[in-house]
# Entry
Amino acid sequence: MKKRLFLLISLTLALALIATACGSGGGNAASDAGATDSGLTSGGASDAEMTISVMYYDTGVPGGPVHPNTGEPSVLLSKHYPEIFSRTPNVTWEFEALQSATEGYNSYLLRGASGTLPDLSLLDGYWVAAFASQNYTIPMEDVLPADKLDLVYPAFRNMYDGKTHGIVMSTAFNGVLWYRESHLAELGLTMPPQSMEQLADYAKQLTIPGERYGLAMPMAKSEPTTVCLLGYYWGAQQPFVDSNNVAQFNNKTSIDLFNFLKTMYDDKSIPDESLTMSYEDAERMFTTGKASILQHGSWLTGWDVRTPDFADDIMVSPLPAPAGGISSQNAGGWGLSVTTKDTAKYPAIAEFISVIILEPEFVKLRLTECGELPVSSNFSPEDVDWIPEKYAKTIMDMLPDANTRPIVEVYPDASLEYCQAMQEVVMNVKDAETALDDAVDRVAETARESGWGQ
Amino acid sequence: MQTRSFNARMQIIYFCMAIPAMLIITIFIIFPVLYNFLISFTNFTLRAKDSGFVGFQNYIRFFTRPETLTVVKNTLHYMLGVITVQFLLGFCSALALSYMKKGRAFASAVLFMPWVVSQVMAVTAWRLLFNDSYGLVNYFFVYLGLEPVKWFSNLDTVMWTVMGLNMWAGYGFTMTIMLAALKSVPIELYEAAHVDGASWFKRLFYITLPMIVYSIATNLILITIYTFNIFTYVFALTGGGPLNRTEVIGLTMYNTAFVSGRMGAGAAIAIVMIAFNLILAAIYMKMLKKADNDAL
# Structure
């Protein structure tokens, strides 16, 4: 009897220990957050008191780090949130910090499946398909008035099945051309390249073997490389992957693009190591004077800080268009999506989105802080005074024609297969047509296996 | 009678004391592995609601897709290269240290340092040092009048660049285990051999190596497991490129499960990896048992 009692007590103690350990690490994030500093009450009380949880960048979470661009606490804390709180006096706002890309994507999908996503989530543009297809997100049409929603440029509304499942907060272009004016002047050139042939030609002429390359750009097998290439691709205004998850990129535009890259690779006017280079590596080549032209993001406007020695020498240009196309850009980025089905919260969420994304006086403060571009048409180019004047017009002129990544489930796989095909062409393993057809087949196989469209 | 009752009581107490650990192992290791095994037979993905049983399709696909051959070749290349060089480097360092009379502790600490350097820092340094265009290594090559090497862009050298980082970071581990093993060999054996006129090589091959054979085997198995599961260095240095030339099985598993979101297919690759690790672990356990028996 004693033995049994002893065993029972031991088991109870052991289970209690485990339960305590699990309880201290897990639990409901939303309710836990309410008891911490991240829970902010907007004051006042009404009959419909509620709590709304928001996933945001860590700099926008009370108690989070200072903004890296300013070294100061984010303007969200001092300007935006007080305004939101005053408009929604019955709401307690709780904030949690966004996780990094790959980990975030999977863990938020798991949270979606378990119904524990915050009420308002920050999702990368191409993630939206997986969330919307499983009803984790709510169409913005149910939340925002049409006149407000229509202010957002179509490219920055994350559409799925004809509905807006997210709004990009602010944007930047993934691949503009930054170039050294003095290097072009050495060749007697006063204008940046206007066509892809011209770019290949300039890059070749600007190359000094052993000293510098004409062009530096990321070409590693990764999604960021694809968004860099999409800048050219969108110029032909063709779909990359259609809404049925069928890759459409095996076309003349891609063949021309890959052959154009191969020409530069064969000419040694882009570095051999481009095939494992990231954005950061390409930027480093440019800032160390090892490259004359840099294909990189439009967010690199702070050259005065990064390269004070030759900041005055740097100018920006749009990517040249493919033959017969228009000069375009890939843009997009992180957007807010409504991830609660509690309709009572929608008016307050609408106020939050309005202040953060749509109202110029507040948006401007945020964009000045992060150096990005507005996504709504109620912003005139003259308002964009946080970008150095000599770049501002060129960059702003690209905005209306910018395009975003396809919002379909298979896109991450398609982007990697596209890079794989590009590398096969550049390294002379396959001709462009075969490499692209093979890539499309691989994407189809992945989509079929996963039960996506087709 | 009383002793038997006492022993039985103690057995229960021991069992109860082991319960928390067993529960933790069950929850955090056994259950995830079993669950992983189950989902390896499904087309489960986080990006779609519907998933179902697909039998051995994930396994068949992994073993029949043409890319797998490249991945297996790369993994074997990586393992053989790293295991051989890391072991020889570690063993030779340990041997050299074992002969040092002064400053051994300092030298050991210096040589062991790469093992404790954060992997992220090591990768960052390696990228800068071996950059084809502005890396310090090529800078010295050019300075010495040599041709710069395409560390990351040449399909023949890129794998060695990644392996080099693993060898550099890992040899300290081998060295430490080997040094401990070398110090455990009774000095009397060397003295007797010396009196008998045995050369240094004979002492190495007929005394040292036989005496530390289990430590060597243990070391080799641990390095094999570690290199087979390698992910960080490859992921951060090359991402498996260019042209999948450095894609090893750990990276394929990660890309399939977490980038592509195909958890079922990723789980199947993980099970293949677990099976390989289990075989190595079984060999290791058997060897330990034999070593224990030999010691008795």
